[in-house]
Amino acid sequence: MFKPISGVIPVMITPYTDDQKIDYESLKKLIDWYISNHVDALFAVCQSSEMIFLSFEERVALSKFVVEYTNGRVPVISSGHISDDIEEQKKELLAVAETKPDALVLVSNHLDPKKEGTEVFKKNLDILLDTLPKDIPLGVYECPAPYRRLLTDEEITYMANTGRFVVIKDVSCDLETVKRRVQLVKGTPLAIVNANAAIAYPAMLAGARGFCGVMNNVHPELYAFLLSQGDKRSAELDELARFMSMAALSERYGYPDIAKFILEKKGILKNHYSRTNKWTNFLENNWACDVVAQQIIDGTEAYKKKFGI
User: Fold this and answer.
1) Per-position b or e across 133-160, b if 16+ CB within 10 A of its CB
2) How far apart are CA 90 and CA 127, in angstroms?
3) Do residues 62 and 97 touch, judged by C-beta distance below 8 A?
4) Which is nearest to 45 in space by CA: 27, 26, 32?
5) How many whole angstroms separate alpha carbon 247 and alpha carbon 104?
6) Domains, the chain, ranges and CATH?
7) What region does 41 belong to: left with phi over 0, alpha with psi -120 to 50, or beta?
């Protein structure tokens, strides 16, 4: 039986050079930064990595690089699953599987691209299960693009019972849904990992197996600390969780740009360019964003000092 992939799992961003190629030197610094801040795994070639704006060759090369540079320090899961056509899905997933991630992540909406329902979802899933190597664990990501296709209870149970799935990145953003899903997968290797910062702490308390949201690109060490507290509850931890929830609203400035901007201010990245948002000047388009970014950095450091992180 495969082991679950769980804990604090950053959805990795992709740094670029000034001529808009993948900046592998900055990526090394980023991987080292994640690991030094107590993450449990890395999610490469995902939406935060701007996978829909990467070529097939870039997606495969990116997964290969992250796996090789991480070198077993933490597990690496990879996706790169962007196509609706089932034959293209086979091609891209098999190629990423050859980079030897610790789990290969399927995107839920591509298993039901026309919103036809569970029958079509399971049919396409079965095709991929027959195609993909049996010795590589699998995950599922309820990616919001091109549309957020939430998994039904029937689909989750079906995947859990195969014994091949080890993680679901839950994008329901609903605590009651997370609680129900945790119960559905009990006794299987499948871990429910919440992606929403607003419910991160209560989801952990309810049995979700970690956090796999965008704010792991800003302060993963705070999520790791909350997770390490188990079922403890205190006014101080509630206060920390509120700060983290409010900080997550900065995503509205434009993501992944805001996360890249904060990492640039920290000295991890050289710039905050993204292929997703082609603004020529991020700061001019987002008034006072630099002030908010610094407040998040300062607030993070203050809470680290308070809790001895």
Assistant:
1) eeebbbbbbbbeeeeebebeeebbebbb
2) 9
3) no
4) 27
5) 30
6) 7-230 (3.20.20.70)
7) beta
C-alpha 72 chain-centroid distance: 18
CA distance 103 to 100: 8
pLDDT score of 280: 61
Low-confidence spans in the chain with pLDDT less than 70: 1, 279-280
Name the CA radius of gyration of the chain, rounded: 19
E strand or H helix at 118, and its extent? helix 118-131
Q: What does the block give as tokens for 144?
A: 């919001």
DSSP assignment of 244-303 equals: HHHHGGGGGG-TTHHHHHHHHHTTS-S----SS---S-HHHHSTTHHHHHHHHHHHHHHH
8-state DSSP, 38: T
Task: Render pLDDT for 161-206 as a digit per residue (tens, 0 to 9).
Answer: 999 999 999 999 999 999 999 999 999 999 999 999 999 999 999 9
What is the residue type of 182? V
What local confidence, expressed as pLDDT, does residue 1 receive? Answer: 65
Burial 250-285 (b: 16+ CB within 10 A, else e): bbebbbbbbbbbbbbeeebbbbbbbeebeeeebeee
| Nearest residue to 199 via CA among 256, 153, 244, 252 | 244
> For residue 209, what are its two tokens?
């197996």
Q: Distance between CA atoms of 35 and 31, rounded to whole angstroms?
A: 6
